[in-house]
Amino acid sequence: MMYIPPAYEISDWNEITSFVAAARAGEFVTVNKDGTPESSTLPFTWYPELSNSSDGVKSYGRATTHMARSNSQWREIEDGAPALIIVSGPGAYVSPTNYASTPVTGKEVGTWAYQVVHLRGSVRVIHDSDEILQIVSDLQRDHEKSRQTPWDLATANQDFIHELVRHVVGFTVEITSVEAKFKLEQKKSESDRRTTIDDLRRSTRPDDLAIAEQMEQRLQPE
Description:
Elements: H1 13-23, E1 25-31, E2 37-47, E3 62-68, E4 82-94, H2 102-105, E5 111-126, H3 129-144, H4 158-165, E6 168-183, H5 190-201, H6 206-218
Antiparallel strand pairs: 1-2, 1-4, 2-3, 3-6, 4-5, 5-6
Helix pairs in contact: 5-6
């Protein structure tokens, strides 16, 4: 399980699903028979269940993805084996110079601010060409839908597509656990957080600017 101090835990289902949908890819982690972990960065589609305001989430749904058949990771995966999909957002270094107590006590250090979601479940390896084609089609649809003129897989040469599918292995992960951690300086005072936001906004790094925006959205007056 992921270590999540209460201040950093995210439980809002809509926020979690929106974060994962925006990321669109993650680290697909499995364990070989000899105990060696393996990981591949893969785009995936998550089909989460809708939350129920009174009863909470009844099911975490499933995620589908695929990899090249030449990737040896799949050969070590048995149906029903555990799998982990790590979905990361932007991250940024936070300097202790942003904290008012630093020059007074000297008891502060730099830290890393970040956002991450872990999807855990049991995996099934897919070799059926029709199922793999559906996984690929769904991924293309999701990635193309925000474009002004979305490309449709159906317009491609179908002989070419079916040949590609022969070189692909698919996966379905039945999700049994969802953990979300957004470490965005929630333990610090409003003043320290505002100083941190201003500092990050002076950066030219896109991730620093993104984290500053996320911190700003979660800033609550003391």
